[in-house]
Amino acid sequence: MTLATRIRLDMIGPSALLLTDSATASATDRGWWVVRGAAAYVALFFLWTEFHWGSEQYRALIADLAFLPLKIALVVLFWRTAFHPALPPRLRWGWQVLTLTMLCYGIANAVLWPYYELVQAQQPYPSWTDGGYADHYPYVLYGFILFTVHPSLLLGLILVAEFHEKGRLAWLKLCLDAGIVLVGAGAPVWYFLVRPIAEAYRYDLSETLVFLAYPVSPLLLLFGALMVLLIGSGPRNKMSLQSVALGVLVLCAGEMAFTYQTLQNDYRSGDPVDALYAVADLLLMIGAQLEYVRVSVGSSEVSPNRFGDFFKILPYLAVMLAYGLLLGTVGDDWREPLSGLIVAAVVLTTLLLGRQFIANRENLRLRAEQDQHESEARFAALVRKSSDLVTIADPYGVIQFVSPAVQNMLGYEPDSLHQTPLLALLHPEDQHRGRDFFRDTLRDAGATAAIEWRMRCRDGSWLHVETVASNLRSDPLVQGIVLNSRNVSERRALEEQLRQLAFQDSLTRLANRVLFRDRVQHALERAQRSGQPVAVMFLDLDNFKTINDSLGHGEGDRLLVATARQLVRHTRASDTVARLGGDEFTLLLPEIKRSEDAAIVAERIQANLSQPLNLGGHEVFVTPSIGIAVFPKDGEDAETLLKNADMAMYLAKRQGRNLYRFYDATLNEAAIKRLTMENQLRKAIERNELSLHYQPQLDLPRSCICGVEALVRWTNELLGTVSPAELIPLAEETGLIVPIGEWVLRAACRQAKAWRVAGIGLERIAVNISVLQFVQPGFTGLVAQILTETGLEPEVLELEITESLLMKDPEGALHTLRTLKSLGVQLAIDDFGTGYSSLSRLKQLPLDRLKIDKVFVRDVNSQPNDAAIATAVIAMAGSMGLRVIAEGVENEAQLRFLESKHCNEIQGYYLSRPLPTAEMTAMLRELRAGDGDG
Q: Helix/strand/coil (H, E, C) string of 700-719?
């Protein structure tokens, strides 16, 4: 076998070499030598037509006779292929029809044409040559139809295509592509050939028909070629048929060019257009040889689609041709022939839009198919690699497929569970539920349900598994029940842990608030049926914060655990002990006979908890304050009983601690009143309900008013006038003392400035500062801002702070006082003597004045201790350079005592009660007038 033969066989596929014997190889090799010879002949002929060698008469002679050897070779190769015994019947008929066509065309082209040209020296119209040319058009079309589909099946192909979208879209797209090519090619044919022929031979019908056959008939060949190129007969002979179809297209181009030159009276034998016929013959020979080689070697390999991409652009080339012609002739008359091109353009545009719509539909379908394939591939990969167990069971519950995850989850090999009943893997207690679950899933197609059960592992252990079953019996790819199972053992353990955390205190292991409320609710439901009382106890450890802060939180936790243990030990099994948080405990005593039984339990708890306890090497004593609420007298639901027991506990704390108290309705009234006061106080400033009263201060040596103390008062529409004894503690507990204190400070400074502007020579105005207000960040800046806003001289303002404030944060208090002193304000210690501040610390403070608390002034004439304290404070202040003012002076005897001890100033009801602004202003004016008169 020669190298050339091997190359030709390689084009068909590697399997061809395995099936080739020497005789077949020799036959195919001879065919290729004919093709090579024809190719060389066509190349020489093309060069000859291009360079115009020889005289015109000599050129005509050569041109007329040159096609004879090509036609003979072409017919021989077609004949050999058409009668090859290995061809299928339909393809054999197609090749035989093409062979007859090539024979007719060869006689006309290589015999009749030269005869008229050389012997008769003219070509009559019409003649036998035209008949030979005309015969081959329908035969070629019929042959191409046989290559694609049997004519009798053509209509069936269209009908079958209607039943599925893929075939319907492909057929519509093919028709649109063929229509675009035919219209696009027909436009220039009409413009350059049909229209001129019709005009030139309008009076001779026979000549007109003959001439029109040349440009119109090739369109039939073009349609047949498109069928082969766009449909094809199969993947194995695609290459050979494409070569034949391409040769027919070149032949059509030659016919068009010949007709056009003839119309222009510009055709001469031997012109380059003749070379197109030669090239067409060469392509036809190559196609016949390729088909012969393919069937000779019996190849089943797919033929390469070497011209596929070129054929795909044929519709676009046709569109470019038609629109280019339209644009090139835009200057012509709009009626003729431009109107025909416009019609072609409109038709082309319509076909293009239709094709684009079909292409979009096809792209969507292809995308959907691709997505489906990708989804199936991903699903298969997920099933193989997923940690979840995927099982497919038939309607009888027998396993047909199990994913590899079963080995990691249950320990079985996947093949070992094939044809195993699913119920055999379930825990005996779950088999009944599993049987019902499987039956319910089978009931409805497409149904999905979930269940949690236990499955047996290979080692005999049981695994908690959550399974989701889907009924996919109607799915042809599944035809069963798909069960997706997941190991939930860790989740079950976590749920149990969360359940304990949700209903149990993590430190003491007692019930928490949620569980306690639930137990109370159940106890109340039983009590409503039995009529027996139920007691709820609220217990708080006294001074627990002190122990926690001094010994540390670890020892504090030990104390709580020990307390919980004692509470459980001294209650019944039916009782519930809970820790609500911090050092707060609650007890539920269901089904007691009488309320006194709760008191007995409370006394027993007090006695046991009061025993000394060793914590961190320290012996500590813890006492409880207990509040008791009893159903149904003190509440009929859990929330009310807990609230009332809590209120009773606070009553026990206020009355001395280490007590137990039963709830009383008056407690609720007091709590409601306090809540109302708090709500109203929050709106007091914006409602302008606060006011200032002023109590004068008397300078004893000078016997004149030296200052006033600003005192806040609150009058509410709902509550009336609220006493300072209620207002100040409530404001401090709620934190409202901070905005109220700021309001008092600003209002007092504003009033002091107004008095000084009015000519009332007020030396000093004193304002009380609470602990919460003093420790606020930016307090000193606030004081400076208010002095700037009101324009009050700093030395007129005196700020009074309590002695207890100095004990909480001595260093911070000292820094703040020094900053205030740098502003120029005066500073005083209020209620001096009630605290425990050291004298060494007191010496460091930048103070101006000490105020002796009224508790030491009240009995100075009857209580020697109070007199001694007052005397000592006055003497000490004098030695430190501080002035002293005594509060609560209510009679002359107190005044005489203080004068005898050289107290600097006094303040109290003996001098004047606190006065509103108007009355205080009148007093100051009167005193000033008296001073003026004197």
A: CCCCEEEEEEEEEEEEECCC
pLDDT for the residue numbered 787:
94
Alpha-carbon span 376 to 780, nearest angstrom = 75
Q: CA 4, 8, 12 angle in degrees (round to 5)?
A: 160
Angle at alpha carbon of residue 666, lines to 665 and 672, rounded to 5°: 95
pTM of the model: 0.42
**Cα(470)–Cα(487) distance, integer angstroms:** 18
Contact present, 223 and 145 (Cβ < 8 Å): no
**Higher pLDDT residue, 824 or 351?**
824
CB 140 within 8 A of CB 134: no
Residues forming a β-bridge with 625: 540
For 901-920, give one letter per residue: b (16+ CB within 10 A) or e: bebbbbbbebebebbebeeb
Question: pLDDT tens, 736-778?
Answer: 889 999 999 999 999 999 999 988 878 899 999 988 888 888 9
Q: Which pLDDT value is given to residue 60?
A: 61
Cα–Cα dist 735/739, whole Å: 8
Neighbours of 36 (CB within 10 A): 11
Nearest CA to 797 among 761, 850, 749?
A: 749
d(CA 140, CA 104): 11
Residue 539 pLDDT class (50, 70, 90 cuts) = very high
Strand duo 480-487 + 389-393: pairing: antiparallel
DSSP 664: -
Q: Residue 433 above 90 pLDDT?
A: no
Distance, CA of 934 to CA of 435 (rounded, Å): 114
Tokens of 78: 């077609």
Give residue-wise pLDDT tens across range 113-155: 666 666 555 555 555 555 555 555 665 666 666 666 544 444 4
Contact call for residues 788 and 745 (beta carbons, < 8 A): no
Higher per-residue pLDDT: 479 or 343: 479
Q: What is the DSSP string of 866-908?
A: HHHHHHHHHHHHHHTT-EEEEE---SHHHHHHHHHTT--EEES
What spatial distance separates the first Cα and last Cα of the chain, rounded to whole Å? 153
Residue 583 near residue 634, CB atoms below 8 Å: no
- Given a contact cutoff of 8 angstroms between Cβ atoms, the answer to whether 108 and 128 are in contact is yes
Give, for 383, the enclosing helix (H) or strand (E): helix 338-385
Structure tokens, 895: 């005044």
**Helices 638-654 and 665-681: angle between axes, nearest 10 degrees:** 90
> Where does the pLDDT of residue 572 fall: very low under 50, low under 70, confident under 90, or very high at 90 and above?
confident
pLDDT of residue 99: 77
The span from the CA of 899 to the CA of 901, in Å, is 5
Q: Is 802 left (phi over 0), alpha (psi -120 to 50) or beta?
A: beta
The mean pLDDT of the chain is 76
pLDDT, average across residues 40-58: 69
Q: Does the structure show a pLDDT above 90 at 913? A: yes
**Higher local confidence (pLDDT), 474 or 327:** 474
Q: To the nearest 10°, report the CA torsion of 705, 710, 715, 719.
A: -110
Query: How does strand 720-722 pair with strand 765-768?
Result: unpaired
pLDDT category of residue 397 using cuts at 50, 70 and 90: confident
Tell whether the model's pLDDT for residue 309 goes beyond 60: no
Cα 486 from Cα 63, distance rounded (Å): 85
pLDDT at position 558 is 87
Q: What is the 3-state secondary structure (H, E, C) of 764-815?
A: CEEEECCHHHHCCCCHHHHHHHHHHHHCCCHHHEEEEEEHHHHHHCHHHHHH
Burial of 27 (0-12, 13-18, 19+ CB in 10 A): middle
Q: Which helix (H) or strand (E) holds 189?
A: helix 165-189
